[in-house]
Amino acid sequence: MINILVTLNANYLHPLKVLLKSLFHHNPKEKFSIYLMHSNLNQYDLDGLHQFITEHQHQFYPIFIDRDYFKEAPVFRHYSTEMYYRLAAHEFLPKTIDRVLYLDPDIVTINPIGSFYRTNFENNLFIASEHEFPTKIVQPINKIRLKTPLTKGYFNTGVLLMNVALMRDLVHLDEIYQYIERNKFKLVLPDQDVLNALYWDKIKPVDSYRYNYDARYFEFAKFYQSDKNNLEWIKKHTLFIHYCGKDKPWHDDYKGKLGVFYQKFEQMI
């Protein structure tokens, strides 16, 4: 059984179905339990997701979260309170779960994920990727801003393999609340900043080109001599295409070349 965690509001219901369709399509021999942490989805929305997931022979578990848990946390631009919920997942997931794969809903899967899901944590809390291109530019600033001078990277939280068993021992909501309160005017990518500031030394890195390919930077591929910037390499080796930022492949004016993967699965639902 593969446990998948998503956190979202009603604006991302359709992209979520596209993500799930891509997961089910590329992993026909796996069984999924889909956990959805939310605060404002109505019963009609939840019933529709339940029907969609069970028709594909998988399980669905919605988890209602009171907004008071992160009522003081900053939200701005296209971010919402739901982005923080992954940091508290260990408090709400069933006690029988020892690991879960968190995925942002603006992602599609293009290869089997079973081997990645079962990766050894090696006593880390999380397994995640850096988006190398932007990280190299802003990392010196992040070290100062987040007060993490020893960290070697800045990890994206869109694909996050979570060691839930260890989180129950080491991740404390009071510590997260206190950090947010002390630094809320410094947070730029809020939940991501919190994870990198508090747990930077408990994150096992993996290759972003395989496990969290930022679709925005494919357009820069022609400037880099690397097989990993080749569309055929991506089709063969990449697990997750991540449509980061405000421009999304479900927008009519989206022009990114990797939108073809999203469109393929959107046509299948």
Describe what this molecule looks like in 3D.
It is a single chain. By secondary structure, this protein is an alpha/beta fold. It has a single domain, classed as Spore Coat Polysaccharide Biosynthesis Protein SpsA, Chain A, CATH 3.90.550. The protein has eleven helices and ten strands. A seven-stranded mixed beta sheet has the order 3-2-1-4-7-6-8, sandwiched between helices. It has a three-stranded mixed beta sheet with strand order 5-10-9. Helix 2 (43-55) links the parallel strand 2 and strand 3. It is globular, with a radius of gyration of 18 Å.
Strand and helix map with partners:
Elements: E1 2-7, H1 13-26, E2 32-38, H2 43-55, E3 59-64, H3 89-92, E4 100-103, E5 107-109, H4 114-117, E6 126-130, H5 132-145, E7 155-162, H6 164-170, H7 173-183, H8 190-199, E8 203-205, H9 208-211, E9 213-214, H10 231-237, E10 240-242, H11 259-266
Parallel strand pairs: 1-2, 1-4, 2-3, 6-8, 9-10
Antiparallel strand pairs: 4-7, 5-10, 6-7
